[in-house]
Design brief:
The complex is a heterodimer of chains A (555) and B (814). Chain A is an alpha/beta fold. Chain A is built from 21 helices and 25 strands. The longest helix of chain A has 15 residues, at 517-531. Classes of the chains: A alpha/beta (555), B alpha+beta (814).
Chain lengths: 555, 814
Amino acid sequence: MTDGPLIVQSDKTLLLEVDHDLAEQCRHAIAPFAELERSPEHVHTYRLTPLGLWNARAAGHDAEQVVDVLLRFSRYAVPHSLLVDVAETMDRYGRLRLEKHPVHGLVLATSDRAVLEEVVRSKRMAPLLGERVDPDTVVVHASERGHVKQVLLKLGWPAEDLAGYVDGEAHPIALRKEGWDLRAYQREAVDGFWHGGSGVVVLPCGAGKTIVGAAAMAEAQATTLILVTNTVAARQWRHELLARTSLTEDEIGEYSGARKEIRPVTIATYQVMTTRRKGVYRHLELLDARDWGLILYDEVHLLPAPIFRMTADLQARRRLGLTATLVREDGREGDVFSLIGPKRYDAPWKDIEAQGYIAPADCVEVRVTLSDSERLAYATAEPEERYRFCSTTASKTRVVERLVEHHRGEQVLVIGQYIDQLDDLGERLDAPVIKGETTVKTRERLFEAFRTGEISLLVVSKVANFSIDLPEATVAIQVSGTFGSRQEEAQRLGRVLRPKSDGRTARFYAVTARDTVDQDFAAHRQRFLAEQGYAYRIVDSDDIGDLGRSTPDSG
Amino acid sequence: MERHVRSWRTAGPAPRTVGRMSDGPVPEGAPRSLTEDLRTRDDAVLLALIRDRPDLRTPVPADLAALAARATSRPSTQRALDHLDQLTLQVVDVLVALPDHSSARDVRALLGGADPATALDRLRTLALVYGPDEDLTVTRSVRDIVGEPAGLGPPAEQALRGYGPARLSRLVADLGLSPSGDPIEDVRRVVQVVGDAASLRGLLADADAAVHQLLATLTWGPPTGRVDRADREVTVAGAATPVEWLLARGLLVARDASTVALPREVALVLRGGRVHRDVQAELPAHVSTPVDPSRTDHAAAGAAATAVRLVDDLLELWASDPPKALRAGGIGVRDRARTAAALEVSDDDLTLLVETAQAAGLLATGGDLDEVWLPTTTYDAWRDQDVAHRWQVLAGAWLSTVRVPGLAGGRDDRGRVLAPLGPDLARSLAPQVRGEVLRELADLPRDRATTAASVADRLRWRAPRLAGRLRQGMVGWVMREAEVLGLGAGGALAGHGRQLLAGSRDEAVTALHALLPEPLDHILLQADLTAVAPGPLTSELAHRLGVLADVESRGGATVYRFSDASVRRALDVGWSAAEVLAVLGEHSRTPVPQPLAYLVTDVSRRHGRVRAGVASAYLRCDDEATLTEILADKRVAGLRLRRLAPTVLAAQAPIDTVLQRLREMGHAPAAEGPDGDVVVRRPDARRASAPRRPSPAPAAAPLPDVVLHAAVRAIRAGDRARTAVKRSPDGASTVGPPSSPTVDVLALLSEAVVTGETLWIGYVDAHGQASQRLIEPVVVQGGFVEAFDHLRQAVRTFSVHRITGAAAVDETAS
């Protein structure tokens, strides 16, 4: 047996020993079909999932290659049943194909009649299908293209979508490369997406997802609908597009609560799209307002369910999803796969960091010991109030004050969940607070002031979790969060990951109350980042003085 | 004579041919009966007969007539046919389709040109067919059992027997011949027309499509059809339907009022002069693909290690939380689902594991009130062995078990689901079929792998009559199970699997041992609170980690996750934080990550805020002074008292000792009941006593040729005696076993003890049952003779007065 770097486990996880000589080679070989699950310091964990294997099939890899890679790099014998399973799973992809038929329009065709028989007989499929054209072909209602793909994925026979896309209304868009160029990984991401047709690109916060979006638009040369999380993010997209592309003010519209502009490139918020009045989505017309050639989804991992439903009807248009993490707290990764598309590009955070495109970060969990009276109050609090209580205690506030003091002179963000706590902190620290009710105008003014260094401390609620570009923030202090949300933690860290002008290391603090549920949630929240290789240090609140400041990178 | 007896007693190769032919009457021409045929055979052939049809030799028949009678009995014939391969069975079909006294050439013609020689030899050896190639006779019982061979109807002669002379005459006339008036002659004339290819073609030339279609459906069987009024009178002129068209020409024959049949001669012509559509003369070759033998070995070794670990996990799990044994036997659905989920195995694999564990004697029912499934005491011994030995125990048990795990989950005749470990999974044929399947795999070269379908094809060819549902189903099961248990992988047997199959257990263990990776003594600790053991761990380290962390993923490596609960578990069993960190530090290749160290110290800091201790007894007294006095007394040192509160003392000594000591000291303590006792007891893992397993019946070991030879001699001797009697004018009394006066018997026995000769004796047992034995006397004393009984392969004691007669094996006829 080889002394390879890979250990294949019977539960379909692959363990890659990163210090091994062949580790890098092996990582490249398994990346197309295995999904990176965790990448802590010594052993990275990949998982073989049907979705991952089908992704690989979609990218043109076959089972033989996969099996060969596993055998070649494996240290121990690979369970034979696992190899058989891999081959069988991969063989399922593409047995069914969605195609354009010259006479019947959209059809589901197969090379394996038995499979078609099986799915045609399925109760969930029947209403989506039309007449049988011939034994190997059945008509699909054009409007059900997305549903069919969703159902087929659930049935375990994912369809290859070869029905193509409408070109949409042409609109010239070009990148204005003035003093910058696409980074190699951004280029790969765009190419991966474009050749695949539709799909998702996974890049860390701060790695320039907007640029990937803009490059995709330049590739499409067509009218584009961009769906983003909130208004501030919408403005930021607009700002970035104006700066990086040939698009002018008149060509970019904003479709939000405040404004309803429909232009060749329109940026809409999830919120406005999902607003219902009397049970009716009022802004669906936007989707049909123009003949969109490309639809961009920012922060795919947050895509709300109604958007999925709408997306099911948009299967004839090219779709690009952008996200920092495919982890969804609601487990709807399968819907992302079938409706937006397979993952087309993925890069581990640490790799991008190593290339210098995102700032290195130092994550510190500060444990605060509650006072005796606080502990007693905590112990007797109602269970549903406990988290709120322990994450907003006065002891914590004092520690936050000391941390802010410690980092005076640096650009510091304090991020929290509870408005009362944030208001209180704003008052004590004498810093402006940005929360849900803050007007967009005020928000933009404050962010701008922060960017220019006019103010060096901001207290923000979860509205700032996403898509807020604050390149100069070097320290983030998290005082409370949405329970154990892993993606929130990643997003918040992302706020400080933009590369710093002086190359300094960012610092991320999570302040937690010792021996409470706060600490348990924190452990859960940290898992994603720990799995991405961000090792948290834990320090006692009494030892803050010993912490270094975030220092400019000596190298 | 003595020299001769010696020569077949020696362990060396037995003489294949003994000059016998001249002794018996050699018949002129072909034998008239099987008995006669057997008489002409030499000993080697007879030996082959009783070797290959074992039911013919127990008990040894008295003579050749008895042998022939038994060989042609229906059950014995059926058994013999069951073991024939496909070609031989097709030859049987052809022989049955042909009249007796046909020749090998006829057989070959109807077989479509395939060479029947080997098959015919085999059939002769088995006494299913006799006579030379020019004049073959198949025994009556074979004809009866085969019935309509290969879907052929009755011969025309037999089919037409039901017609009256008048109807026959009309039929002959309708065929354009002149009736003779003699029914037999008429039938002959009809057969001449319809059984001849040329004239049949002539007849069919003006038949319409419907007639051809009807013939086509009947040609390859079944050869009969149902029609109303099949026996109606029809003529060529009056025929209206295809059936009538054929009836009128004798191409269909009415068998009774509602059935018509296609006569055999007609069918044979329509079949193009052959009996079978396809004759597969050769054993189908393995459908095989190339594999890398070392890959097979390693994959199988990995599976073997996994199987051993799973059985270990299973039994550990059941030791503390045993599943209830259902009243109908087996274990319930819920217990199964729970266990399968805990072990992360499929339902099928779980069934295999529990069945194998039971077969290996590691699992049995036990318990006091409710019957539960528990690991046995054997398990404790098994657990201490290394992986390869443990595997050998499991795989060996699986090879010989009569239980068929694959049946579980199916339903029995009454629709009840068959439960794992239930009573309905046993099939006595299972070990034999399992062996057959695995031997097919062993038959492949090391670098080829095959499929279940191919193995099933080969087994079906080897014995089509046995290819029932169980046998065909088991092929897939056995191959899958062999892979789960690590005898092979991917349709090929591994080296250790081959050795185990060949019975070389030690070699199998050595081979497997060489394939398994060496246990490691280090782990990799990571900041996300996991530890990775990049290979199998030494048992000590594995045990320690098992306490400290939860297993998250298994396989070649093991991934452990540390959590509050797991660290607390370690602290609970008495580790200190420093010990935990020391162990981790010692076995980790890298420094202990800070979050992990923090976790351990954090948990240990909280650990013990609430204290629970173990005390054997306590002292309670409202008067604090009394307790202080007791504590101050030097005599209580052995009790190891400790003050928990002003009014409570805890003692480490048992309550009896405490009470006794206090009384000695002049106090008058009263014992309190068990309520409020804080003794914490960890319940012992329970065990069932190991059942006395009947060692699996050894697969009928082939009898050594020496014994078979003896049996042949005995039969031959009996036959000579019988034929001699027939010729002797006076005696009828000497049929059967030898009969001689006791004095002579004793003399013969004593002589045989000295010479080591084998005797043929007649013996009446305690139940008055007469039998014949072949014995080799060892000692004669007190009216008993101890002797080696050749046919039973054991030393038995016979009482001399029950011996009706004795004769040296070679001299019985004289």
